[in-house]
Specification:
Pfam families: Thi4. It catalyses: hydrogen sulfide + glycine + NAD(+) = ADP-5-ethyl-4-methylthiazole-2-carboxylate + nicotinamide + 3 H2O + H(+). Homooctamer; tetramer of dimers. Its EC number is 2.4.2.59. The protein is built from 9 helices and 11 strands. Strand 4 and strand 5 form a beta hairpin. The radius of gyration is 18 Å and the shape is globular. It binds ligand 48F. Ligand 48F binds next to helix 2, strand 2, strand 7 and helix 8.
Length: 254
């Protein structure tokens, strides 16, 4: 076949524009493509929820991509091994209860599962604000291209409507902070010291609806709760993403 550059351009523009227009209205917006966010998006999509994941960076994977200090391995404890198995992520037991997986395989397989289940990924898009109207409920996100933000260009954003938001933005808990900064009743206690056992043990309790329409998961959940951090053990991130998917799905599917 003879290739036409303009047809290639039209194919990209037309299909992505169509998707972006379709996703101006969605059930659940997940902010952040780290391990908790991708897990959450995959499981929401499997439940039939219309879910879009917004990631400000070029690549999906967040803090899982680089493993521990750039050694591309992650550790997952016994309690979360079933999630590795569910997504077909190979692992080896290093010592009893400590399962080691390759970080690139983990991110890739979680992401592939989310795509197959129907989650839509919007990378290079930063969430810069939220929509809260008269009923006091989080009802949407204000988004812009990350390069616009990085360049400091004065270009107005666009808005997305959703029934629920999952803040999976990691240590910064950016969406929770946006709500709190503008007067929302959402106390943020800030992340604590490194204490893996405690941080992993308590994360499910902190994975919850912290403001009407806003669920927190992953490190964002611990940061809001004033809980410890855990470093490159990822079972809590996977389990927290799973719990956030259950909670958000229950909120939007009735
Ligand atoms: O930090 P991140 O991987 O979050 P997580 O799912 O996992 C934490 C672990 O990676 C690790 C740990 C536990 O083992 O301590 O750090 O809680 O991924 C968060 C993602 O959110 C994106 C950010 O680029 C990253 O990829 N993000 C943050 N703020 C925004 C955002 C925003 N305003 N808009 C879009 N994406």
């Amino acid at each position: 076949m003879e290739l036409d550059e303009v047809t290639i351009s039209r194919a990209i523009l037309a299909t992505q524009m169509e998707t972006m227009v379709e996703y101006l209205d969605l059930d659940v917006a997940v902010v952040g493509g780290g391990p908790s966010g991708i897990t959450c998006a995959a499981l929401l999509a499997e439940k039939g929820v219309k879910v879009g994941l917004f990631e400000k960076k070029l690549s999906i994977g967040g803090g899982m991509w680089g493993g521990g200090m750039m050694f591309p391995r992650i550790v997952v404890q016994a309690e979360a091994k079933r999630i590795l198995d569910r997504f077909g992520i190979a692992s080896k037991e290093f010592e009893p209860g400590y399962h080691v997986a390759k970080s690139v395989e983990a991110v890739s397989k979680l992401t592939a599962a989310a795509c197959t289940a129907g989650a839509e990924f919007f990378n290079l898009i930063a969430v810069e604000d939220v929509v809260i109207k008269g009923d006091g409920r989080l009802a949407g996100l204000v988004v812009n291209w990350s390069p616009v933000e990085m360049a400091g260009l004065h270009i107005d954003p666009l808005t997305i409507r959703c029934k629920a938001v999952v803040d999976a933005s990691g240590h910064d808990a950016t969406i929770a902070h946006m709500v709190a900064k503008k007067g929302g009743d959402l106390p943020i206690r800030g992340e604590g010291f490194m204490w893996a056992d405690r941080a992993e043990g308590n994360i499910l309790e902190h994975t919850r609806e912290v403001f009407p329409g806003l669920f927190v998961c992953g490190m964002a959940a611990n940061a809001v709760a004033g809980e410890c951090r855990m470093g490159p053990i990822f079972g809590g991130m996977l389990l927290s993403g799973e719990r956030a998917a259950d909670l958000a799905a229950a909120a939007v599917l009735h």
